[in-house]
Design goal:
Number of helices: 0
Structural class: mainly beta
Low-confidence stretches: none
CATH architecture of the largest domain: Sandwich
Order of helices and strands: EEEEEEEEEEEEEEEEEEE
Largest sheet: 8 strands, antiparallel
Mean pLDDT: 96
Number of domains: 2
CATH class of the largest domain: Mainly Beta
Distance between the termini: 43 Å
Shape: globular
Oligomer: single chain
Radius of gyration: 17 Å
Helix content: under 10%
Strand content: over 45%
Length: about 250
Amino acid sequence: MGSTVSLRSRNTATGDAQSEYDAATSETILRYSAVNLDEDFTGPGFSTLATSATAGCAWIKKTVQTGGTPSVGPVANAAGGVIRLSLDNTSEKQEATLYAADVLNWDMTKSAIFEARISNHVLPTTNVEIVFGLQSAWIDGPDNASYYAQFQQSASGVVNFRTKDGVNTLSNASAVTLVADAFHIFRIDARDVTNIRFFIDSVEVSASGQMTFAATGANAILQPYVSVYKPSGTGVGSVDVDMIQVGINRS
C-alpha cells in the first residue's frame, strides 16, 4: 500500500487559506492563486522537447556545445515524470537549460510563488553553475540575466539564494548542502517584494528583509527557468526536475 498525503494548510496572518501542502514532504498539493502553473513533466509530450517557441509547448530546451553532448530530456520511466539537465566533461562552454521560450508571464509584483522539486543527479564540479527559479529572457550565462529570483549552486552542493532587480544584486548562502539523488522542495515566496522569502523543505533559509525585488512593470514579469552552465573546462553537473509550480494573483 502506498503512503497517503497528510494535508496541512498555509494561511495568511488573517487566516485566509493560501495553499494545501503535504506535511510529510512539504510539497504543495493545491495552490489558491488566480493564475497557476502546475507541471509534472508526465506523458509522451516531453519525449522530444522543442528548441524554439512552438505552439502547444509550454517548455523548450537550449543546449550549447561544440563537441560534447549536454542534454535536456525525460528520464525513462521515472515515476511522476522527471526532466534531467546534464553537462558532460568535454572541455568547452556548455549549457543545458529548460525554460518557457522567453514567454514572460509571471509578475513578481503580483504575489508570485515559485516551487520546484529538484535533485542534483550529479553535483556541480569546478566552473559549473546551476540555477532554478524565475528569470527574465535567456542570455548567455545565468549571472548575466537582467532580472531573477533564484536558487543557485556554484561548483558544489551548497545552495545559495539570490535576486537581481535592476537596483540590487543580492546573494546569500542557505547553509544547506545537497547530496546526489536526493530530492528537495524549493520555494520562493514573493508575496511581499520587500521581503522575498526562500524555503527548502518548508524551512526558511532567508532572513526577514534580507532579499528584495524592486523591479516593476515589464521588468518584473519573469519565466520559470532551470539551467546548468559552464563557460569552459571539463566540469560536470546534472539536475533532475520532478515538478515546477508557479502562482500569481491577477492584480
